[in-house]
Design goal:
Number of helices: 15
Distance between the termini: 40 Å
Radius of gyration: 24 Å
CATH superfamily of the largest domain: P-loop containing nucleotide triphosphate hydrolases
Shape: globular
Largest sheet: 6 strands, mixed
CATH architecture of the largest domain: 3-Layer(aba) Sandwich
CATH topology of the largest domain: Rossmann fold
Helix content: 25-40%
Strand content: 15-25%
CATH class of the largest domain: Alpha Beta
Number of domains: 3
Length: 410
């Protein structure tokens, strides 16, 4: 199982066995982060390490198995390594001895197919320098940087670090604000947060914490209450909040409590705009009304967690969708970033959670097979709002003229 539990930028290290991938990682981090051995194939499965690189900051480094591994087990290891392409923001292809043949070219094709920025690092330059001929080939055919390096004598380490910083996309660090563009200095945002069986003991769930921090970062005032107290507080509240954000599972109650002139949305929808495929969610959500008997839906959770008797993704959403459509629907739930075993074409729709535990790239890559196949996708909060008849209101803070989007199905 692949778990995407870290939202820091992910850097994948790829290359043949014994090219010194693990040694390169240790040179970058300045410590023995990865196991190093002269035995080819020491790294068998992908290994994720959350570390700090001087001059770059906190990142997740993924050490992978050799792309030239052999045998039935070796093929499986290569497959595991290539699954990491769904997670990473930057790839470093480590070569040695001026070898750049089919294994490397195939991997570069995979980088390009997944829109992953990358550069090539020629390791073991103390034994064999990167030749001008290979440098020109890489530059002319692939238009990427190739750098000569020795993990044993990392005299130009700063040059490698600078290349990492220059190649990794800015979006891996600078995330879109959650609500900062919707509020001004001193504005109040009311957060309606139920405390029920799914609420973790003694703390709040991550999306709630993230929104509170984003409000504070943009000089706003965050007010938090349970749904039972929200109505009475809104009557006394002056000035009124410029935005109310609620937990999706109490959407209907919040919609009844919050006056129509005050914008209302959910934590899940806020996250969907920040890191999900919001445009395709808007396009796909109304397809709920077109579901048929026997349709199979895929529900994607971004993390693994304790499943309660009224779990939002596994219990409530299937129940609400079945009641709304009046159809006999089938549901599959896939947690974390576990591989989807059924062909994506088996599904009539895909429903993605807010994704608070994973990166935007991981969500986009997770949804890409469905989108490429023309399968509608939506988000927990948007689907819940739709079946409760408050979809237009819930997405209105982020979309102008949303009524036209849903007109076809309403």
């Amino acid at each position: 199982m692949i778990k995407g539990r870290d939202t820091k930028p992910h850097i994948g290290i790829f290359g043949r066995r014994n090219n010194g991938k693990s040694s390169v990682i240790n040179a970058l981090t300045g410590q023995d982060t990865a196991i190093v051995s002269d035995v080819a194939g020491t790294t068998t499965d992908p290994v994720k390490k959350s570390i700090e690189i001087a001059g770059i900051g906190p990142v997740v480094i993924i050490d992978t198995a050799g792309i030239d591994d052999t045998g039935e087990l070796g093929i499986k290891r290569i497959g595991k390594s290539k699954e990491m392409l769904k997670l990473i923001d930057l790839a470093i292809l480590v070569i040695a001895n001026n070898e750049f043949e089919e294994p490397e070219k195939s991997l570069v094709s995979d980088f390009l197919a997944n829109d992953i920025p990358y550069f090539i690092l020629h390791n073991k330059s103390d034994e064999s320098e990167l030749t001008p001929e290979l440098t020109r080939l890489i530059r002319d055919q692939y238009t990427v940087s190739a750098i000569s390096f020795s993990a044993l004598y990392p005299v130009n380490l700063n040059e490698v670090v600078n290349l990492v910083a220059a190649t990794i996309p800015e979006t891996a660090y600078h995330k879109q604000t959650l609500v900062g563009d919707l509020i001004s200095y001193g504005d109040t945002v009311l957060l309606i947060t139920p405390i029920d069986i799914e609420a973790p003991e003694g703390r709040m769930i991550l999306p709630q914490v993230q929104v509170i921090r984003d409000v504070l970062d943009h000089d706003g005032i965050a007010v938090v209450c349970k749904e039972r107290e929200a109505g009475a507080y809104l009557e006394k509240m002056n000035p009124k909040p410029v935005l109310v954000i609620t937990d999706s599972q109490v959407f209907p109650k919040a919609a009844a409590i919050v006056p129509s002139e005050i914008p209302l949305t959910s934590f899940s929808i806020v996250l969907a705009r920040q890191k999900g495929d919001f445009a395709n969610y808007i396009k796909g959500t109304p397809h709920i009304s077109a579901l048929l008997d026997g349709d199979r839906l895929l529900i994607l959770e971004s993390c693994t967690h304790h499943v309660s008797c009224d779990d939002i993704g596994r219990m409530k959403i299937p129940r609400w969708l079945s009641n709304f459509t009046g159809k006999k629907l089938e549901f599959d739930v896939v947690a974390g970033l576990t591989r989807i075993t059924r062909p994506i074409s088996d599904y009539a729709m895909v429903i993605q959670c807010g994704g608070c535990m994973i990166t935007r790239r991981q969500i986009i890559n997770r949804l890409k097979p469905a989108i490429d196949a023309g399968i509608p996708v939506t988000n927990y909060g948007m689907a819940i709002a739709f079946v409760h008849g408050i979809y237009n209101r819930a997405v209105a803070p982020f979309v102008k003229g949303v009524g036209r989007v849903t007109e076809e199905y309403l």
